[in-house]
Amino acid sequence: MIDPLSVTAVAGMLGAFGSAMAGEAGKWTWEAVGNLAQRMTGRQVEAPVGAEECEELARQLVAGARNDPERARELAAWMRGRTGGPQGQGGAVPRQLPASTRYFTDRKGPLAELDKEAGRKADGRPRQVLLHGPDGIGTSAVAIHWGGREAHRFPDGQLYADLRAAGPQGTVDPATVLRRFLRRLGVPAEQVPATVEGRADRLAELLAGRRLLVVLDHAHSAAQVRPLLTPAPGVVTLITARRPLAGLDTLNVAVGPLPDKDARRLLTDLAGKHAVSAAKAALPGVLERCAGSPFALRAAAPVLGDAAPRALAGQTFADPLEAATADRYARLAPDAALAYRRCALRPWPALDPRAAAAATGLAEADATAALDELAAAGLLETALDGRYRYRPAVRRHAEALAVREDGLAACATTVHRTVEHYLRRAVAADHAALPQRWHLGPLYAEIGPDGYPDEAAALAALGAELPNLVEAVAAAEEFAAPGTVCQLVEALWALQLKAGRHDELLPALRTGARAAGTTGTAARTAARMHVQLALALTELQEYGEAEQQLVLAAAAEEKDGHLRGQATAVETLGLLRLRQWRYAEALEGFDRAVGLLDGIGADDSGRADLPRARALLARHRGRALRGLGRFASAAASIEEAVAFFRGTGEAYNLARALTDLAQVMIEQRRGPDALPLLDEAAVLLERGGADFHLVPIGVLRELCADRAE
After folding, report:
1. 260 or 49: whose pLDDT is higher?
2. Residues β-bridged to residue 128
3. Do residues 603 and 644 touch, judged by C-beta distance below 8 A?
4. Nearest partner of 421 among 342, 345, 359, judged by Cα
5. Is 108-254's fold the same as 334-406's?
6. CA 491, 497, 500: angle at the middle one, nearest 5?
7. How far apart (Å, rounded) are the C-alpha atoms in residues 99 and 151?
8. Is the pLDDT of residue 166 over 90?
9. Contact at 8 Å (CB) between 25 and 696?
10. What is the torsional sign of CA 351, 355, 358, 364?
């Protein structure tokens, strides 16, 4: 058993708190541990970055604890707080595997290979299999069918990720998959580490003793997959890809075409014996064209008795999937054919009738019918939420058709119209999800926060469209529309502040920062782009780049003469310094922000927001003063914030300020006076569902008793 105050245990605590800063409670806890480190070492200590720095600081803290019983009790309290959080520390049993197809034929060879790998004796080698084959050949079907058939092997559940399901260019990054896996395993959002490395370590820790299946579908590269792999002996990982992935040390299992006998059996299952018998004369030609591809056979089954369309006469195709796709397209009604081409001009992760109507110019009811027809023809896949998506190969076929049949000008108009559709949806949802903030851009005044019953519903709608919005930002940049880029990124603000998901937002935010540097972008807009990127980089612990972005933001606001925006940029830089335990520099930044607010005149922008802005800065100043050991000044500053938020009824900000004030009182050896503040904060947080905040409050209650003694 590890000594609670051993170097190993303390280093583990620092690493855990340092990586679990997805929410305000995590940031607050990290800051409180920084305060403790300053007092135990007797000097200003910058926040450690990486395992080596955590271990070195842990040595210093353990040495200080051995010489000071009071500090030892405080350090031990935080150690207990690390493991005394709310329920949901990774004990959930996920059941994510999709249902297998009803008609599954042959594949005895690949299934036998999977049985053998899953059943072999544990010898230190991870159980990881790559199923590879051309698009439409059925690698996903093999993985999902085997997983469903062998569910008894995996009492701890299944994790599934479609690695092409979201994000720009139809792929999803490892950080996003890791976050989703951890959440499925019961890890609260507040405790999901910020970095890919931290998330991968947490996943490996959770899976170490489990018997669980992981399916990574449609992998693009070894780099995309590698952070998702675990050496846990009870875990079997199945990866599907179009080809072997260089650099990935897995058992490679090829999935090839169906033999004629099995292809005929699949056609019979799908079309029925009567249809197959009626098409006996044409059957050899159908089997030849389908070349053992399950996708092509499924496309051929509904029209087995029809002659090949004249549109395909004399054409040659690279593979059976392309031939089947062209065949199905040739049979579409005009509206469905139009939707097939126009919706494919960008790799939109999820299509719905509203987006299809924008792309095609059809009425929404007609667009709905067109999407239904495309799904029935197998040209679109239907997601669990009822929206649609293309297979990559099918989308490429549709895009090429659009260029050839509609022309480049019509294609460009379609993309502009679709991007505008997503922009207007995003602005309306963002406005409704965070109505109290100041918004940039003319669309906010035009559209307003209509159409949502409450802020939560608007935020959920914005989150559901995030992958499409990221793709819309990429499209706007490609079409040289920096104003549209910036307005789209601005519309992600509520999602960024309230829901995190910084790893998914990052590509769009980087695009916004690039657009900020283009000629014609207003200084105030440019500053917002830099601030938004800086916030995400801070959450992802990319502190150096975050600082650069904040400096650019402050310079842009200063150039524009916008004091309120300049104060926000400087304040945000101060918050970054708090995260790094650089309290003197943080205080300097907050004082500078106060000075900027003092310069705002009666008719200047941001005047109405001044009281709240001052209250937030008062709290931040108190936190910096607490870190510097200036407890009386810290208490006075935080009391200003408490008085303001108590008057406005902002429960969440009041609870945070009360907790900060209680911590200062504990340092002043006023534990009994701090307890009522902690009780009030706990009630406010419980009412708001912010249960994770109760962990640091529990530690402070324990410290109240120690200081009282």
Report:
1. 260
2. 237
3. no
4. 359
5. no
6. 105
7. 12
8. no
9. yes
10. positive
| Predicted confidence (pLDDT) per residue in 296-320, tens digit | 888 888 877 665 554 555 566 667 8
Cβ neighbours for 536, distance < 8 A, ≥ 6 positions apart: 496, 502, 505, 506, 509
Length of the chain: 709
Residues 6+ apart with CB under 8 A from 33: 13, 14, 17, 78
Residue type, 393: A
Residue type, 557: E
User: In the chain, how long is the greatest CA-to-CA distance?
Assistant: 95
Nearest-angstrom CA–CA distance, 119 and 577: 52
**With contact defined as beta carbons under 8 Å apart, do 459 and 495 qualify?**
yes
Region 653-663: mean pLDDT is: 91
CA 222 to chain CA centroid, nearest Å: 20
If we measure between CA atoms, which residue out of 686, 670, 666 comes closest to residue 74?
666
Contact 549, 506 (CB under 8 A): no
Helix/strand/coil for 637: helix
- Give, in order, the Cα–Cα distances in Å from 509 to each of 160, 203, 486, 501: 28, 27, 9, 12
Q: For residue 569, what is the enclosing H or E element?
A: helix 563-579
Cα distance between residue 90 and residue 161, in whole Å: 18
Pick one of 1.10.10.10, 3.40.50.720, 3.60.15.10, 3.40.250.10 as the CATH number of 334-406.
Answer: 1.10.10.10
- Indicate the pairing of strand 212-217 with strand 235-241: parallel
- CATH homologous superfamily of 108-254 equals P-loop containing nucleotide triphosphate hydrolases (3.40.50.300)
Token pair for 168: 């720009």
Of residues 7 and 314, the one with the higher pLDDT is 7
Of 678, 611, 608, give the one whose Cα is nearest residue 640. 611
At residue 707, the pLDDT reads 54
Q: At what angle do helices 502-516 and 466-478 cross, to 10 degrees?
A: 20
Strands, sheet with 235-241, edge to edge from the N-terminal-most edge strand: 158-162, 212-217, 235-241, 127-132, 251-254
Per-domain residue ranges of the chain: 7-83, 108-254, 260-330, 334-406
Tokens of 556: 């842009």
